[in-house]
Amino acid sequence: MWPVYIIVVAIAMVITGTINTMSMKWADKINATGYDGQVREFDHPVLQTVFMFLGEFSCFLVFQLLWWYFSRRPTQPNQVAEDEHELIKGNKEFNIFYFLPPATLDMCATSIMYLGLNLTYASSFQMLRGSVIVFTEILSMIFLERQFKAFRWAGIFVIIIGLATVGLSDFSEGQSGGSVAMDQVILGDILIVIAQVITATQMVYEEKFCIRLDAPPLKAVGCEGLFGLLFTVLLLYPLNNIHVPEPYQNNPNGTIEDLHQAYAQVRNKPLLLVPLLGNTLSIAFFNFTGITISKHKSATTRMVLDTLRTFFIWFISLFIHWQTFHILQLYGFVIIIVGMGVFNEVWWSIPMFKNRYGRNENTSNDDTRGLVNSQPADEPY
Prior knowledge:
- The chain is an all-alpha fold.
- The chain has one domain (4-74, 91-352).
- It has helices at 4-29, 45-72, 100-119, 122-129, 132-143, 150-172, 182-213, 217-239, 259-268, 273-296, 299-319, 327-343, 351-357, and strands spanning 31-33, 39-41.
- It comes from Laodelphax striatellus (Small brown planthopper).
- The chain crosses the membrane at residues 5-26, 46-70, 96-115, 127-144, 151-172, 184-205, 217-237, 271-291, 303-322, 328-350.
């Protein structure tokens, strides 16, 4: 059974992850007048990445404020000591450059996924994005020397089937329409898979070093945000001058990014600040809760929880008429929920299934932690 704190963190991860994706989609859908007087969609992925890393960096500032507050507060006999408070507990003296690699991986994966999404169908993106769970499992076995039981692999397989079913619904709607060359579709699919490998590498790296360094999640996310923010800001100038054809740009300058256009659109439609700031705040909470799950559970559990937010994104999109209902999508999400239940042994905690299949409580504790075995034991996941 998960501790109450981890359950709250897991719920917060799904909620803030949903808000993050929906806020980005909302910004993309807002039309605003640019400096050329024409109305265009707010298509500024690099600038949105800057806001994303700004949100992550804010976790570092929050950590410093909390540490300052708890260190100066007089400790009462019935109060938790400063070093033991859940939000700042852990090793505070680690080398921040340990989080340079995941920041670089995060930036690369985000950029590659955006490029791949522009080349292929949304359905393909949805299906292939689920492959991150498989890559995370494989890399966990290689680099963390972790062994997983067959039922966990079965759960992952069921989740992938569910994701594929959701993606196939787009094809049944006739989404392809022959408007995109097949070689572009194949290239886009390859890029998305590569991005999932990079994301899985980032997740496993974070899990290994969060446990090994006992880094407080707030400070860990803040360090990643600091490096990511520096890198992205340095890239803004060259990307503001690199000309590319459509559909890789949607601005008067014809470049990958156009800061002048972004400023003009925000000035002419201040409503854009709502999804941009929503993205910044939600990504801070989302990554903090994500690293907390990796630290106390595993990177694969984090990815499975991340998959769950797809259901809420789909439901909200239907409610606000951003997409139409298709029965295959409903089937797909039911399959995903079943797969998540298998992976996390939810079904065996229900008396009816427990009595029928006879699983005992020690089954989930047998997974080998490998390199992290020398650390204090985590809660069984």
